[in-house]
Amino acid sequence: MKDVFARLGADFFSTILFIAIYLTTDNVLLATGVAIVGAIAQVIYSRVKGKELGYMTWASLGLVIVLGSATLLTHDPRFVLAKPAIGHFAIGVIMLKRGWMLRYTPSIVTQTVPEYVTFAGYAWAALCFLLAAGTIGVAMTGDMKLWTFYVTVVLVGAKIAAFAIQYIAFRSLVGSRLRAAAQRA
User: Backbone phi, then psi, for 113, in 5-degree steps?
Assistant: First the structure.
C-alpha cells in the first residue's frame, strides 16, 4: 500500500506542488513556474537515481511543460487547470478495455462474479470521463479557489466513494453467490 501512495505522489507531484504554491502565495504564474521546474527536477532526479520512468511520468512532464508554458505565455490559468482533465480522459480511455480490472481484484471476486468486475471497469471509465468533463468545466471558469476545491475534494472524494460502493457491492454479490451455491449443494 505504501508503494501505491508513493507512485500516486510521484504521478501527481507537479499538481501537488502547484496547489501548495498557489495556496501559500495566491499567485498562479509563480505556482505554474514552480510546477514546471518541479516536474523537470523530478525527472532529472529519477534519471540520476537510475529509476525507471513510466509512461505517466513522461506524459505528466509533457503536459506540465506544454500547458504550463501556455499559461505563462498567455497569463491564462485555464491551460494549466485543464491538466487533470487530460489525465482523467486518458485513463478513462484505457479503462474501456474489457476486463482491465480483473487483474486488480481478489481472486474470489474474479472467480465468483467476473461479469460484475467487467461492468465495474466500465463504470470506472465513465467516472473518469465525468470527472474530466467536470474538471474542464471548472477550469473554464478560471476560478482558482473552485478549481482547488474540485481537484482536492471532488476528484478524490468521488474516487473514494466509488471504491467504497464497489467494495460493498462486490462483497454483497460474492456473499450472495456463495450462499446460493452452498444451498444448491
Answer: -135, 55
